[in-house]
Write a structure and sequence with these properties.
Nucleoside_diP_kinase_AS; 7 helices; about 140 residues; Nucleoside diphosphate kinase; kinase; nucleotide metabolism; NDK-like_dom_sf; alpha+beta
């Protein structure tokens, strides 16, 4: 079943020069395509929409500060089982628990700055794509 997902390459991925490597891993997956891509620094308004479910949690303000600390690559990736697939490619948030071969397993350093975001469900993907790419229906 073909799906769409939002993928964010976070400020640490951009700062460390890992954008090409991560995009290459996504592009090499058979049947997946990048249908939208943008490099930009995120403002608080976008981050408040994106992380609305985390308001009030102890990690919320540090997360917003980190995500607005530098440019982010946002993209829409489409393909078969792409939501599940990109999350597997990313690996668990904790880079120590992430397997070798995953993005976080190969390049992750700390849990808070974990290189990549990928939507966790079709509902989240639809909501998140509308936030980052409002012109895409």
């Amino acid at each position: 079943m073909s799906q769409r997902t939002l993928v964010l390459l976070k400020p640490d991925a951009v700062k460390r020069g890992l954008v090409g490597e991560i995009i290459g891993r996504i592009e090499r997956k058979a049947g997946w395509t990048i249908s939208a891509l943008e490099l930009r620094t995120l403002d608080r308004a976008i981050l408040e929409q994106h992380y609305a479910e985390h308001v009030g949690r102890d990690f919320y303000e540090p997360l917003v500060a980190f995500m607005s600390s530098g440019p982010v690559v946002s993209m829409v990736v489409e393909g078969e089982r792409v939501i599940e697939g990109v999350r597997a490619l990313a690996g668990p948030t904790d880079p120590i628990a992430a397997p070798s071969g995953s993005i976080r397993g190969d390049f992750g350093t700390i849990t808070r700055e974990n290189l990549i975001h990928a939507s966790d469900s079709e509902e989240s993907a639809e909501r998140e794509i509308k936030i980052f790419f409002p012109g895409i229906s």
